[in-house]
Design goal:
This protein has about 210 residues and is α/β, with parallel strands linked by helices. The chain folds into two domains: about 1-45, no CATH class; about 60-205, Vaccinia Virus protein VP39 (Rossmann fold). Helix content is about 25%, strand content about 25%. It has a seven-stranded mixed sheet with strand order 5-4-3-6-7-10-9, with helices on one face. Strand 3, helix 3 and strand 4 (about 95-100) form a beta-alpha-beta unit. Helix 2 crosses helix 3. The longest helix is centred in the middle third of the chain and has 14 residues, at about 105-120. It is globular, with a radius of gyration of 20 Å. The structure holds S-adenosylmethionine.
Length: about 210
C-alpha cells in the first residue's frame, strides 16, 4: 500500500503528537500517579485514491436512488463518497441512514460540510476509510461511481451483502455480474449516463 506522508501529517495538524522512530505516540503526562498512560491509537495514514473525484450530477443521483428502491430502515453505503451528495440526498429524500466512505481528506471535509449544511448529521456518517478494507455487512443499498475494474475488485465484498440488497453503479458495469436493470439518463451535454442495478444474489454473466 502506498502512503502519502504529507497528507497523513496534515491530518494530524492541531493534535499534540510526537513522532519517534516512525511510531506515533501521545506525549507522556505527569498525572501524579504511578498508573501508566494507555498508548494512543496510531493515526491511520490516508491511501492514494484509486480513482479521481468526479461528482455525479444531481439528476443522476436522484435516478440512482430511485433505482436503489430505498425502503424505510434501509442503510445506504456510498463507496467513494466524494462531496457527499449521494448520502445527503438519500437521508433528505428517503430519511434513511447513510454512510459515505472516502480516502481523500479534502472530500471528507466537503462531505462533512454538506452534511452540516443540510442538517442530516443524525442520519449520515462520513468515514475516511479505504473501501477495499470496509465491512459492508450493515448495508443493504450500495452506490458506486468508480471504474469497472474497481467494481470487479469489490465483488467479493458485495457478494456477502444480505440477499435482496441493491447495488447501483453510475457509468460502470461489474464484470461477471449480470445487472437486473440498466437505465439511461440524458446528460446536460447531449450525451447520456448509464446506471446499472444489481440485486443480491446477482445472476452470473459470461466474462
Ligand atoms: C468518481 S468519484 C464519485 C463520488 C461520488 N460517489 C459521486 O458519485 O458523486 C470517486 C471517489 O472515490 C474516492 N476513492 C477512490 N479510491 C478510494 C478508495 N480505495 N477508498 C475510498 N474512496 C476512494 C475518490 O476520492 C473519489 O472521491
Amino acid at each position: 500500500m502506498r502512503h502519502r506522508p504529507k497528507m497523513w501529517l496534515a491530518g494530524l495538524a492541531g493534535s499534540c503528537v510526537i513522532l519517534t522512530s516512525g511510531v506515533l505516540s501521545a506525549p507522556a503526562q505527569d498525572t501524579g500517579t504511578q498508573t501508566p498512560e494507555a498508548p494512543a491509537a496510531p493515526a491511520k495514514p490516508s491511501k492514494v485514491p484509486d480513482v479521481i473525484f468526479v461528482p455525479t450530477p444531481q439528476h443522476v443521483v436522484d435516478k440512482m436512488l430511485e433505482l436503489a428502491e430505498i425502503k424505510k430502515g434501509d442503510v445506504l453505503y456510498d463507496l467513494g463518497c466524494g462531496d457527499g451528495r449521494i448520502v445527503v440526498t438519500a437521508a433528505k429524500k428517503y430519511g434513511v441512514k447513510a454512510v459515505g466512505f472516502d480516502v481523500d481528506p479534502q472530500r471528507i471535509r466537503e462531505s462533512q460540510e454538506r452534511v452540516r449544511q443540510n442538517g442530516v448529521g443524525d442520519l449520515v456518517t462520513i468515514k475516511q476509510q479505504d473501501i477495499f478494507e470496509t465491512d459492508l455487512s450493515e448495508a443493504n443499498v450500495v452506490t458506486l461511481y468508480l471504474l469497472s475494474s474497481l467494481n470487479a475488485k469489490l465483488k467479493p465484498q458485495l457478494e456477502k451483502l444480505k440477499p435482496g440488497s441493491r447495488i447501483v453503479s453510475h457509468s460502470f458495469a461489474m464484470r461477471g455480474a449480470k445487472p437486473n436493470k440498466v437505465v439511461k439518463v440524458k446528460s446536460d451535454y447531449g450525451g447520456e449516463h448509464t446506471i446499472y442495478q444489481w440485486v443480491v444474489p446477482w445472476e452470473k454473466e459470461e466474462e
